TrEMBL record:
<protein>
    <submittedName>
        <fullName>Glycosyltransferase family 2 protein</fullName>
    </submittedName>
</protein>
<feature type="domain" description="Glycosyltransferase 2-like">
    <location>
        <begin position="12"/>
        <end position="154"/>
    </location>
</feature>
<dbReference type="InterPro" id="IPR001173">
    <property type="entry name" value="Glyco_trans_2-like"/>
</dbReference>
<dbReference type="InterPro" id="IPR029044">
    <property type="entry name" value="Nucleotide-diphossugar_trans"/>
</dbReference>
<dbReference type="Pfam" id="PF00535">
    <property type="entry name" value="Glycos_transf_2"/>
</dbReference>
<dbReference type="GO" id="GO:0016740">
    <property type="term" value="F:transferase activity"/>
</dbReference>
<keyword id="KW-0808">Transferase</keyword>
Length: 281
């Protein structure tokens, strides 16, 4: 989508897929199209969307191209497709856009997120108005309609093991540990909150900051690369939970995705603790 007059700001969006559910991706892109409209209409800027296919199966790639064609022709949502030959991980997929020509502001977005119609407008305005703000995270509802706490305090080995292997028992028998990690004590209000760590399902930052940091650390294949990037962006400015920016996140925890994801979760967790310090309880 293009503005009718010269935009003052360019906003880029990267969405990484790997055999991801096309139905959810379609919802993501339709909601993004609705969220782009007020940004463009308000003369704030133009928005470029890139879907990065991280080495998906050949048949999936054909279906993905057809979906993007339909969205362009029927909905006017113009999406660039970047097809990578190999899956080198979540962060590497996003870095293929960040290392190129990101916008003044860049949105890292999951293919299972729906934006409120005013989410992008509110997020960009907030970042533009505060030069000290380096990274923004939104209010999120989960697929069950309950608030999902995307922001986190630094994790401990104990809490991560509970979340990975026994999430239901962890919430029942160790609610204080779980809620403290999820920051539900402070992120359950309508106030902005300064936070240390945010989820990679929606991260809005300045393109120049992301480039200066080299984007995601590609040694993390999946999981914890968002925490690592949060800490590094936090050295450039504040990391904020901004609840007036609202999304719905249809994702799930690693424990619900099988043993392969649990293995990646544990390996990335080990790297995170080795890099940023161990916390046991």
């Amino acid at each position: 989508m293009e503005a009718s007059s010269s935009p003052t700001t360019r906003i880029s969006v990267s969405i990484v897929v790997f055999n991801s559910a096309l139905e959810l991706l379609q919802k993501t892109l339709l909601s993004l199209g609705d969220a782009i409209a007020p940004v463009v209409a308000g003369g704030i800027g133009a928005v470029d969307i890139t879907v990065v296919d991280n080495g998906s199966e050949k048949g999936y790639g054909c279906q993905l191209r057809e979906l993007l064609r339909q969205l362009r022709e029927e909905q006017g949502i113009d999406v660039e497709l970047l097809s990578l030959p190999l899956n080198r991980g979540f962060g590497a997929g996003h870095n293929s856009v960040i290392s190129g020509n990101p916008g003044d502001f860049h949105l890292i977005l999951n293919p299972d997120v729906e934006l409120a119609p005013d989410a992008l407008l509110r997020a960009v305005r907030r970042l533009r108005s505060d030069e000290g703000l380096a990274l923004l995270s939104p209010f999120a509802l989960g697929r069950d309609g309950r608030q999902e706490f995307l922001c986190k305090r630094p994790p401990s080995v104990f809490v991560l093991c509970l979340r990975a292997f026994l999430p239901a028992l962890g919430r029942r028998f160790f609610p204080t540990h779980m809620s403290r990690y999820e920051m539900s004590d402070v992120c359950g209000t309508e106030s902005d909150v300064k936070v240390p760590l945010v989820s990679g399902c929606f991260m809005l930052a300045r393109g120049g900051d992301l480039q200066s940091l080299g984007g995601f650390d590609e040694r993390y294949f999946l999981y914890f690369e968002d925490f690592d990037l949060s800490l590094r962006l936090g050295e450039l400015g504040s990391v904020m939970y901004v609840p007036e920016v609202r999304i719905v996140h249809h994702g799930g925890y690693a424990s619900s995705k099988g043993w392969r994801h649990l293995g990646m979760f544990m390996r990335s967790g080990l790297r995170y603790f080795q890099q940023h310090g161990w916390r046991w309880i």
